[in-house]
Amino acid sequence: xxxxxxxxxxxxxxxxxxxxxxxxxxxxxxxxxxxxxxxxxxxxxxxxxxxxxxxxxxxxxxxxxxxxxxxxxxxxxxxxxxxxxxxxxxxxxxxxxxxxxxxxxxxxxxxxxxxxxxxxxxxxxxxxxxxxxxxxxxxxxxxxxxxxxxxxxxxxxxxxxxxxxxxxxxxxxxxxxxxxxxxxxxxxxxxxxxxxxxxxx
Length: 201
Description:
With about 200 residues, the protein is an alpha+beta fold. The protein has a single domain, classed as 2-Layer Sandwich (Endonuclease, Chain A), CATH 3.30.870. Helix content is about 40%, strand content about 20%. It has helices spanning about 25-35, 50-60, 75-85, 85-90, 125-130, 140-160, 165-170, 175-190; strands spanning about 10-15, 40-45, 65-70, 95-100, 110, 115-120, 135-140, 160. The protein has an 8-stranded mixed β-sheet, with helices on both faces. β5 and β6 form a beta hairpin. α1 (about 25-35) packs parallel to α2 (about 50-60) and α3 (about 75-85) crosses α8. The radius of gyration is 17 Å and the shape is globular.
């Protein structure tokens, strides 16, 4: 049994294909559902399913500031376009989206109300949430949460570009359609592999 060290408390969450299939996803959803001020998520590969999308939109609807910091530069261009399929959906419902363009971004973190934070290996996509073995650390330590929030804030100011909702709506139908084809293809590939209801995660 490990001995306690220091005063900070944290929970170590793992995701596998047996007993802990939805542990990380449920931790996110519970934290978002209880948010009262701000949800800030920085994620490299962001392809959330229905439940996650609904949770973010409902948070924005009740007055919570919801901010997504996503990749603007990546070596996986198809994945980037697939992620962009959801931009219009979120922007039209009050969710802010910023693309990090200073370099490739591999962050997989979130801060909620500066009182709950997670750092780990799990992206918000079907592969991380339904297939891969992942691990995330969840902390409610105020100092850690504030430090992570400040770090993400600096990244958005110095290396990210906000996506304007009005400009995004002016995209061509071809661009929108292509993004949705890629999004559906990525998520459907999980179902083809036989891992259940791919649109829930």
